[in-house]
């Protein structure tokens, strides 16, 4: 998640190197939709394995995975290889920001109604000061594992599924804004919902649900109610992550968040556990945002909620 500092946003002086798949069209004949299937329980060990890979990439590339750096490109390559092997149609969208090349990765699952697209996304870049394992390896790994679960299940949703990993979010949602700005009005109207996951494994977690679109919000709240966990509306990240460009053009958005540098109250600690009077993520935008800066329970719960929403909203 980017810092809410005036003047931090950097406009994209961007030129696409590869034409993005924006219509939802897929290669080959798609199987007919079947009755709605239950969402899988994502193994948290799988999500953590992706985080371990992102940590290794950062360690091997100057300690970060920031926009325009070798660690970011290696992160994109890791995610793309997994998706290609799983049968997704992947597209790299290239742009330029702050004099450096950035990339968005878009992955389409074959089939489903291309006039009704459900998207789930996360930013894959870190800040330059650390590896960004919670911010936002956590969201990126959970979105990746959800996509791989779609492949394992050979899920045949009614709607078309698209997953995305954004570049240069930390510079002001540059990658996601570039994607949205390059959609035609017709293709924007085909996106029935965009789900955003930015920091979902905070070490002193809260459970926050975006309250932008009522139907998407209810989907997440229904999941958490089913596992007996109270939530609160997400306010800390309003306008500070990749849902903002979608929301700004009228696309319904939703998502999950486990907290950044806001302080957990006594009431929240009583409800969720953890330590009151401390930040939800004491390593936010710091060098200590490593693989040890993850709360496994929060990561597991939020990843399962992510998968549940993808299945529910695309069925």
Describe it.
The protein has 315 residues and is α/β, with parallel strands linked by helices. The protein is 36% helix and 17% strand. The chain has nine helices and eight strands. It has helices at residues 44-60, 70-85, 133-153, 174-181, 185-189, 214-226, 243-248, 266-272, 296-314; strands spanning 89-97, 100-108, 113-123, 159-166, 191-197, 208-209, 232-233, 253-257. An eight-stranded mixed β-sheet has the order 1-2-4-3-5-8-6-7, sandwiched between helices. Helix 1 packs antiparallel against helix 2 (70-85), helix 3 (133-153) crosses helix 9 and helix 6 packs across helix 9 (296-314). It is globular. Residues 4-35 have low confidence and may be disordered.
List its traits.
eight-stranded mixed β-sheet; 9 helices; 315 residues
Principal-axes geometry comes out as globular
In helices, the fraction of residues equals 25-40%
- Biggest sheet layout: 8 strands, mixed
Return Rg in Å: 18 Å
Q: Please tell me the overall pLDDT.
A: 91
The strand count comes to 8
Helix/strand structural class: alpha/beta
Please give a quick description of this structure.
With 315 residues, this protein is an alpha/beta fold.
Reconstruct the topology from this structure.
Blueprint: H1 44-60, H2 70-85, E1 89-97, E2 100-108, E3 113-123, H3 133-153, E4 159-166, H4 174-181, H5 185-189, E5 191-197, E6 208-209, H6 214-226, E7 232-233, H7 243-248, E8 253-257, H8 266-272, H9 296-314
Parallel strand pairs: 3-4, 3-5, 5-8, 6-7
Antiparallel strand pairs: 1-2, 2-4, 6-8
Helix pairs in contact: 1-2, 1-3, 3-9, 6-9
């Amino acid at each position: 998640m980017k810092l809410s500092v005036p003047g931090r946003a950097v406009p994209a002086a961007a030129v696409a190197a590869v034409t993005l798949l924006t219509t939802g069209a897929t290669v080959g004949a798609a199987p007919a939709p079947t009755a709605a299937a239950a969402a899988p329980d994502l193994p948290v060990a799988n999500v953590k394995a992706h985080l371990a890979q992102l940590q290794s990439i950062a360690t091997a590339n100057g300690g970060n995975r920031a926009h325009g750096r070798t660690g970011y490109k290696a992160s994109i390559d890791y995610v793309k290889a997994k998706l290609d092997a799983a049968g997704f149609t992947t597209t790299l969208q290239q742009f330029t920001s702050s004099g450096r090349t950035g990339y968005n990765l878009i992955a389409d699952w074959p089939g489903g109604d291309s006039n009704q697209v459900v998207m789930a996304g996360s930013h894959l870049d870190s800040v330059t000061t650390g590896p960004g394992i919670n911010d936002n390896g956590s969201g990126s790994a959970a979105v990746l594992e959800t996509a791989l679960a779609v492949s394992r299940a050979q899920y045949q949703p009614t709607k078309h599924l698209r997953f995305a990993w954004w570049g240069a979010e930390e510079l002001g949602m540059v990658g996601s804004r570039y994607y949205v700005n390059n959609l035609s009005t017709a293709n924007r109207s085909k996106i029935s919902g965009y789900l955003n996951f930015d920091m979902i494994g905070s070490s002193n977690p809260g459970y926050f649900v975006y309250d932008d679109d009522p139907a998407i919000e209810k989907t997440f709240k229904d999941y958490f109610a089913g596992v007996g966990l109270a939530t609160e509306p997400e306010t800390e990240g309003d306008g500070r992550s990749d849902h903002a460009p979608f929301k700004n053009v009228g696309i319904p958005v939703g998502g999950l968040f486990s907290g950044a540098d806001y302080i957990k109250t006594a009431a929240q600690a009583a409800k969720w556990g953890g330590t009151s009077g401390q930040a939800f993520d004491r390593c936010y935008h710091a060098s200590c945002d490593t693989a040890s800066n993850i709360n496994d329970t929060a990561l597991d719960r939020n990843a399962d909620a992510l998968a549940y929403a993808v299945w529910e909203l695309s069925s």
